[in-house]
UniProtKB/TrEMBL annotation, chains A, B:
Name assigned to this protein: ArsR family transcriptional regulator
Ranges of residues in domain Rhodanese: 129-218
Keywords: DNA-binding, Transcription, Transcription regulation
GO molecular function, one term: DNA binding
CDD domains associated with the record: HTH_ARSR, RHOD
Statement: the UniProt record of this protein carries the keyword Transcription: yes
Annotated ranges, domain HTH arsR-type: 5-99
SUPFAM superfamilies assigned: Rhodanese/Cell cycle control phosphatase, Winged helix' DNA-binding domain
Length: 221, 221
DNA sequence: ATATCATTCAAGCGATGCCTTGAATGATAG
DNA sequence: CTATCATTCAAGGCATCGCTTGAATGATAT
């Protein structure tokens, strides 16, 4: 009943890939890229039931993409390390690079306008230093409170229309969200540009920004 | 169409991951990494039937990991670009790195379940002679192939859950691995006992067994 | 101890995936 | 046109996956 060593190895690799092969688990990883979370919080954010969420998390843990620790009654999950994020990013890059389907979906998101190139993190940091840019954090406010780019203003997609008048029409606006898997920033830029504002998207999201070693402001005033 | 654009995007990313989640397809990609090949050549190299091989290749093509062209009657497949290779490499790196990490983590938590006393090598040898025990080698398959206790069955930790139903519930199970500093056997025993099986750990590992002058079987059938 | 809360386990259902078998397609050679 | 070859399609069996429901576990507080 002993299988070949080679096949056993491939089975291990396949286990990791299989852990990444369900949209629900990618959602969980995206959430965990924001920071460590408990099961209940993850279930709420992703819309999964508690039990289902727990089972997905255990599958991710079996592939060692996440680790967990106890905190009182709660079990807190987090990404094992930056390699997990790298793997997710490369998966996304390959998918977007190769799949015309992805392009069509993103185009559908942008509502048919020509999406401009995203702003690199280095460029945004420079523009921030000279104060020539408005930064918009379009994630839910609890995630904003847990950490955001210094100087960024928070507005969910639902709030976006309301704060439109308060946005300068001359300065450039840069929107960001959770990261490459997240579509909030795409949608925000589409909305802003439809209203004639000069908006672009930040390349990557807050996890990538933090990964670069750039400042993150916690506990808003 | 767009029920949920976000889900649709994640579905596309998951499609790429799913394409990498079958050992057969990883074998095909490994072959293609050495150069473009026809279907028949790939089937021969991997031991798959022609039809099965063709279907796997189409799945890889759907994920845009490979592309194909016609050459006379034959269809020649090749990797789409270097990114496919990068993705395979990162998958392998993460899998191997994570397995080592699991080992380190488990070393920290030796407790967690009431571990029974390990079985001495002399006792195991006697029990083996009378056939009243199931021996489980929980090291990687290549190490198993390089030498193991005669009659031992090989199963990595990842495979353990899958072979659970095939393990006898009445006979005692003895698990061993590399030696006193290796945690595979500890973890295996913990898993088996969680499933209600009567499992214990061998004192020491294969090096100690060999050091005792006891038989070691090389070259598995 | 008992109660409570968060998480995990276990069983069942429907859907999907992998593999096999046998027939259909598409391109080339005579 | 017909025959041949490589590949693909189609249908079936069998296993696995993802989700749900309801109960069990583990840690904490009373």
């Amino acid at each position: 009943m002993s299988i070949s060593p080679k096949l056993a190895l491939l089975e291990e690799y396949a286990l990791v890939a299989r852990a990444l092969s369900a949209p629900a688990r990618l959602m969980l990883l995206e959430q965990l890229a924001q920071g460590e979370r408990g099961v209940e919080a993850l279930a709420e954010k992703t819309g999964l039931t508690i039990a289902n969420c727990s089972q997905h998390l255990q599958q991710l843990r079996r592939a060692a993409l996440v680790t967990s620790r106890r905190d009182g009654k709660a079990v807190i999950y987090r990404l094992t390390d930056a390699k997990t994020l790298e793997l997710m990013d490369l998966l996304r890059i390959v998918a977007e690079r190769n799949l015309a389907q992805v392009e069509r979906i993103l185009r559908g998101l942008s509502g048919g306008y020509d999406a401009p190139e995203p702003v690199s993190r280095a460029v945004l940091a420079a523009r921030l230093a000279e104060g020539s840019v408005t930064v918009l954090d379009v994630r839910p406010s609890d995630e904003y409170a847990a950490g955001h780019i210094p100087g960024a203003r928070n507005a969910t997609l639902a709030q976006l229309e309301q704060i439109l008048p308060t946005l300068a029409h001359d300065a450039e606006i840069v929107a960001y969200c959770r990261g490459p898997y997240c579509v909030y920033a795409h949608q925000a830029v589409a909305t802003l540009r439809r209203h004639g504002l000069n908006a672009r998207r930040l390349e990557g999201g807050l996890p990538e920004w933090r990964e670069d070693g750039r400042p993150v402001l916690i506990h808003v005033g």
